[in-house]
Amino acid sequence: MNTIDPNTHLTIGALIFPDMDQCDFTGPFEALSRVPNSTFLTIAKDTGPVRDLRGLRILPDLSIADAPQLDVLLVPGGHGQEALMHDEAILGFIRKQASHARYVFSVCTGALLCGAAGLLEGKRATTHWTAMDVLPYYGATPVNERVVIDGAMISAGGVTAGIDGSLVVVSLLRGVTVAEELQLYMAYDPQTPFTAGSPATAPVHVLIAVTERAEAITKQRMETGQRYRTRQHP
Q: Known SUPFAM superfamilies for this protein (predicted)?
């Protein structure tokens, strides 16, 4: 694995937005903010407090207009992602950062934002299981894995998969040993109390209930993806 010279300072940043799922951001933050010789920045459309899907408020460091070029851009997901799928200020920011970043790292439905910015065409990618069927509208090949690397694009599946993805990113930046040290510090040793963590293992009644709960946002995401594909391939 060709990691980056440890003497090279890295700038890592996360895009945050209203109604995101904070764990898509805070899970990876736990590891990425501890990358040796790096600075972590929290970036939003403006510098006002950002309220996540469940009401947690986060104060960004910078606006997208003032953000420097990043080595790694983290793009989380959550229901609020859908409101940004036509926001050219946000999509332009993602595209601009991606043009020079070492890696773009999406978590959950942050992959759809990356898709709307044109970053998934011809790429393998993953996202939250409820949105996997949306990925092809953005030119991506869906892969049912927790973390998928395709060139400079790294995508993680739903919510907690962002922790796995962040450790993979750390390993690419500073090597496996540093990633392992951070994993140990975080005591990240999942031994889940139930087996309902994926559609493949969840009891049928649980899968039905969660699928129905997500039906409205899933329908919106499919319609947005269909419109995007139509514009790109009329």
A: Class I glutamine amidotransferase-like (SSF52317)
Q: Please state, in angstroms and rounded to a whole number, the distance separating the CA atoms of residues 98 and 74.
A: 11
Alpha-carbon span 8 to 223, nearest angstrom: 43
Instruction: With respect to residue 4, please indicate whether it lies within any of the assigned structural domains.
Output: no
**Predicted confidence (pLDDT) per residue in 116-161, tens digit:** 999 999 999 999 999 999 999 999 999 999 999 999 999 999 999 9
Catalytic-labelled residue, pool 98, 101, 108, 116 = 108
Counted residue by residue, the chain has a size of 234
23 is catalytic: no
CB distance 82 to 110 below 8 Å: no
Q: Where are the alpha helices (DSSP H) in 12-122?
A: 22-32, 88-98, 110-116
- Number of domains the chain contains: 1
Q: Domain holding 88: CATH number?
A: 3.40.50.880
Give the Cα separation of 230 and 3 in Å (integer).
Answer: 40
pTM summary value: 0.97
The span from the first CA to the last CA of the chain, in angstroms, equals 42
In a domain, 213, yes or no: yes
Residue 5 belongs to some domain of the structure = no
Contact 42, 15 (CB under 8 A): no
> Burial, 187: exposed, middle or buried (Cβ in 10 Å; 0-12, 13-18, 19+)?
exposed
* In-domain check, residue 106: yes
Query: Containing domain of residue 140, as a range?
Result: 10-232
35, 3 in Cβ contact below 8 A? Answer: no
Structure tokens at 159: 């919510």
